[in-house]
Amino acid sequence: MSDQKTATQGAADTVTLVDNKTGKSYEFPVLDGTEGPRVIDIGKLYAQTGMFTFDPGYTSTGSCESQITYIDGDKGVLLHRGYPIKELADKSDFMEVCYLLLYGDLPNAATKAKFEKAITYHTMLHEQLINFFRGFRRDAHPMAVMCGAVGALSAFYHDSTDIRDERQRMIASHRLIAKMPTIAAMAYKYSIGQPFVYPRNELSYAENFLHMMFAVPAEEYKINPVLAKAMDRIFILHADHEQNASTSTVRLAGSSGANPFACIAAGIASLWGPAHGGANEAVLNMLGEIGTKDRVAEFVARAKDKDDPFRLMGFGHRVYKNYDPRATVMRQTCYEVLEELGVENEPLLDLAMELERIALEDDYFVERKLYPNVDFYSGIILRAMGFPTSMFTVLFAVARTVGWIAQWKEMIEDPSQRIGRPRQLYTGQNQRSYTPLDQRG
Ligand code: SDX
């Protein structure tokens, strides 16, 4: 077992808080983990001081103890159970990374084969769910379909909704990881009026997804191994990312005891936002709006203008104040895919590279440590592979499901877990009496 330790085994340091209004001082324990900043345990702050902390956006708040993913934003480090993301992207595959995130260590050959088989045999959907798809407009955004279909899974799989039952939690986890590609591909097929393509058990996870997305009954679909490998790597790069907005949403939803299907549907909804997982779609729309290199300077100026809501999509990050290590791998993958597809010059890539060059030389971005993030290059690859822009965040959700599930599992299995219930700084009206309608001005 790796040398993990729980926070409670950390050094017995303390910090002292002095309330200058009352002159009282309070001591709070400081805990340290295996990596990263120490934390001040303020669990008893309100009981001792009658005060709350105040940290909108949680820029300085650790919401939980976790052993799954570690990020060092200043150094651009991302570890999954201690393994650097670049090593996993170069040497592992998505099924192995799923096992690692869920169970804490890389599987041996036998456990990997058993895990892959368990996932493979859950890839089909209950046939009646097809009726569910037929209720949507053909032009519905696939994220809306994904949200609805995943939330509906709890209506079909009653035998895996009891979160207190370890076996049911495992089956629900496997079902969600396995069925997300099937639901995603069905959302796409439905939007273009093509028949649904069933999963095939002899294909790998990434191959199966490409097959369900792009095969048609009229002819055999040939898997391109380079594209399948790129797809698998893109899944790895999006698998988990500590306590981001959608993962925190899943944890908060799960803390009430909601079933895992409902929790993942909540995560999908949160991921959809353009400030989060919706950024990959927004990057492509932004590059389309910029159009040509000679307009890059105009849009960089707009991104810096406080009076202009325009932001450079795919740039900046709450945690990374250095290059997002996933963006580096994504850019390399972009070259590999474009070369495999024989795309000599991709205007969008040229435009993105020019945008990156200009931004990284501009003081505004340098001072604020705004670098390309995971979403900056992913859309260019996905578009080249034939995915419509509207499917980009859906792919992010397919990959991130294992991270959401791993974090949800860790929370459920934490004996100290309680329902999440933040407080607030109230600045509304003091108590006042009701004024009858005929007495109001
Ligand atoms: C993901 O959290 C995760 O881990 C998320 C994620 C994951 O894997 O789960 O990594 C996936 O969501 C990546 C981020 C994708 N989003 C985008 O690319 C959208 C564009 N980025 C911005 O919206 C922004 O950078 C955020 C939302 C990503 C981060 O927002 P923060 O931390 O709240 O940053 P901030 O607003 O405090 O920015 C600090 C300064 C501000 O200027 P000042 O007020 O200090 O003068 O930088 C500016 C911001 O205005 N700024 C930008 C900018 N991002 C921040 N200015 C122009 N363009 C941008 N993209």
Can you summarize this structure?
The protein is mainly alpha-helical.
Description:
- The protein has a 3-stranded antiparallel beta sheet. It has a 3-stranded antiparallel beta sheet with strand order 4-5-6.
- Strand 5 and strand 6 (83-84) form a beta hairpin.
- It is mainly alpha-helical and 441 residues long.
- The chain is globular.
- Helix 9 packs antiparallel against helix 14.
- It has helices at residues 45-49, 85-91, 94-103, 109-120, 129-134, 142-152, 166-192, 205-214, 225-237, 245-255, 260-271, 279-290, 296-304, 325-340, 347-361, 363-367, 375-384, 392-412, and strands at residues 13-18, 25-31, 39-40, 69-72, 77-80, 83-84.
- The longest helix is centred in the middle third of the chain and has 27 residues, at 166-192.
Q: Strands, helices and their partners?
A:
Elements: E1 13-18, E2 25-31, E3 39-40, H1 45-49, E4 69-72, E5 77-80, E6 83-84, H2 85-91, H3 94-103, H4 109-120, H5 129-134, H6 142-152, H7 166-192, H8 205-214, H9 225-237, H10 245-255, H11 260-271, H12 279-290, H13 296-304, H14 325-340, H15 347-361, H16 363-367, H17 375-384, H18 392-412
Antiparallel strand pairs: 1-2, 2-3, 4-5, 5-6
The structure holds s-citryldethia Coenzyme A.
